[in-house]
Each structure stands twice: as structure tokens, then as C-alpha cells.
Amino acid sequence: MVQRKVWDDEYKNAKLVTLSDKPQNDFLKFLRYLKKEKKLAITGLNILDLGCGVGKNSIHLARLGNIVTGTDISGEAIRIAKERAKKENVDVNF
Asked: H-type helices in 14-94, by residue range?
């Protein structure tokens, strides 16, 4: 699969993708919107993170007390996500 190779190469070289540990700003804004406007508790949920990349958002959701499964087309991204979750002692099924 061409797309998989492109993304694997990107995650190996990180030319465009940030390797910061912080969740994405737009994602955090969306969570605030859900909490404030929709009165949704963001805890105790079963969450599927499609296109999870290196797992920043998945790890954040797990820290909030959710059961999280993250999947991505890139095996390299999943490898990095697993390392991050282990390093941060967070349970996410990647």
C-alpha cells in the first residue's frame, strides 16, 4: 500500500509531523466544547481513535479515565504510540 509507506516514512523522519507529547490544540478545544456546551462527561467512555498517529490524543483520553483503542495505517506510528503509552504508564490498546 503506497499510503502506508508514505506515512511510515513520515513518522520515521518526522519532517511534517510533530513529535510533541501534547494533545492537539483543536482536539483539546473540541473536548472543552463537549464538556461545556453538550454537558458530556469525558470519562468512563469506550473510545475508538481512528487515525491515532503517534497516540497523543489517545493517551490524553486514557488519562481522563477512558478505555481507548487507537488505530492507524502506519505501523511506525503505532510503534511510537505504544512506546509513549508505556513510557507514560498509560493503558491504551494500539
From this structure: 25-36, 56-63, 75-87
Q: Residue 14: left if φ>0, alpha if ψ -120 to 50, beta else—which one?
A: left
Number of H helices, E strands in the chain: 4, 2
Is residue 42 pLDDT above 70, yes or no?
A: yes
- Rounded Cα–Cα distance for residues 37 and 58 (Å): 22
* Alpha-carbon gap, residue 20 to 60, rounded angstroms: 13
CA–CA gap between residue 73 and residue 75 (Å, rounded): 7
The CA distance from 82 to 28, in Å, is: 21
**Does the predicted TM-score (pTM) go above 0.85?**
yes
Q: What would you report as the CA-atom Rg of the chain, rounded to the nearest whole angstrom? A: 14
Burial environment of residue 52 by CB neighbours within 10 A (0 to 12, 13 to 18, 19 or more): buried
